Amino acid sequence: MLEKQVLFAKLFAYILRLYGDVLRRTVKRKTRSLWRKPSSAAGPEEVRPIVIIGASFAGYHAARTIATSLPPDSPYKVIIIEPNTHFQFTWVLPRFCVVPDHEHKAFIPYGPYLGDAADSVQWIRDRVETIERKCVILTSGEKIPYEFLVIATGSAHGGELPSRVGAERKQDGMKRLQQVQYRIKDAKKVVVIGAGAAGVELAADAKEHYPEKEVVLVHSRHAVMNRFGPELQAAALKALEELGVEVILNDRMAHEDLEQGRVVLTSGRVVECDYLINCTGQKPSSNLFAELSPGSISPSGHIDVKPTMQVNDDSLPNVYACGDVASLHVGNPNSRSATHQATVAGDNVVLAAMGKKPRATYTRHWADGVIKLTLGLSKSITHFGNGQAELLFHAKEKDIALMSEGAWRAMGATPFEDPGLEPLDENGF
Ligand SMILES: Cc1cc2nc3c(=O)[nH]c(=O)nc-3n(C[C@H](O)[C@H](O)[C@H](O)COP(=O)(O)OP(=O)(O)OC[C@H]3O[C@@H](n4cnc5c(N)ncnc54)[C@H](O)[C@@H]3O)c2cc1C
């Protein structure tokens, strides 16, 4: 019991520190913007590029940190390379795979998060295919030189719903979400593979939204949410079972035979199924960097980084990595740790660009591993754990679209206005 109280006190101190840091940065940003001059001060021949690959939680935040911290008249220019037309808000994907009419909320317009610095940042809508020592090469074949590089390619390149959208345009992403909704609606028996957060949330939502359907959740480990503590595991299992989800543990899919409407598990057990959803693990998207610096890739596939977020390759001091792609042994990689790491990477790029030593460091904090897990349409648990003790905060969820509205606001966008959206096609996409 005392352990919980100590953990609670530490959590409170952590939150105070977090708010203090946010306040300090906001004041710094606002005062800078008062004397920021138009970025046109630097002529094209003077531009010194800082390239950021990927604009999700880590890359977008690193871009903002750098662009809003560079001194006025800096010759440096931030260039973001990102294939997606919109920021894809992962948190709501399992929910929007089940519940219709909210798909558009998962795609937040890019730009306003950069605030006053937005005009000085260049966007390139493309994918990086190769990283070289002085430049990156895009799918288009164009070479973009860099003086500093931030790799924020995350995980699950090529991933599919419900973990990643798997489409670059908003309209295509919405269509994909709707296709999953239709498939779940049409199915009588849904099998979900993988009981990490995405699998648990999707299975619980599907069963609560369609109580008449059979929903089976198959997981290869001894417990659902096995990367977290036993209290969260037990609470999640209880909630799933109360909803009527059948949970099969210590088993995995051997093969699917959807024509016969079944899935065969390694134990030999056969589960009837007419729609199968795969929610198994994500892989870090580090392949780009593996060619340039194979020694910097950890056995888990992450890019090894120093606490400064510089890659662990002394021949590449100006290359940084942050977020899900970076290896800092974060138990539960999430957007909080991704943005925290991006702040450190961004601060250090700015210091180095000003000729100073990169001295900001990222230290893993157990509270960075917080998770808010939805358990059906109206319940959630926010969980903190430090390996010895756990804190579980149960809550009632009133908003079917979860935190999308807050996410739009946090990204500087007006919910759910999207003036820059490309014209819809004849089917409304
Ligand atoms: C279903 C689900 C729910 C989640 N819920 C939560 C939650 O509630 N709370 C929480 O804190 N975290 C949550 N997470 C975790 C969170 O989404 C990730 O930790 C976070 O997205 C990591 O951000 P990132 O920027 O490192 O990488 P990613 O989000 O993976 O983004 C990588 C970006 O890089 C781009 N990219 C990749 N390769 C290239 C390339 N070659 N060239 C150019 N661009 C490239 C991609 O297009 C993408 O935009 C959830 C994750 C999932 C899957």
Automatic annotation (TrEMBL):
Q: Name one Pfam family in it.
A: Pyr_redox_2
Q: Which residues form the FAD/NAD(P)-binding domain?
A: 50-337
MF GO annotations:
electron-transferring-flavoprotein dehydrogenase activity; flavin adenine dinucleotide binding
InterPro entries for the chain: FAD/NAD-bd_sf, FAD/NAD-binding_dom
Tell me which Gene3D superfamilies the record gives: 3.50.50.100, FAD/NAD(P)-binding domain
Q: Which GO terms describe its cellular component?
A: cytoplasm
**What is the official name of this protein in its record?**
FAD/NAD(P)-binding domain-containing protein
Organism, per UniProt? Uncinocarpus reesii (strain UAMH 1704)
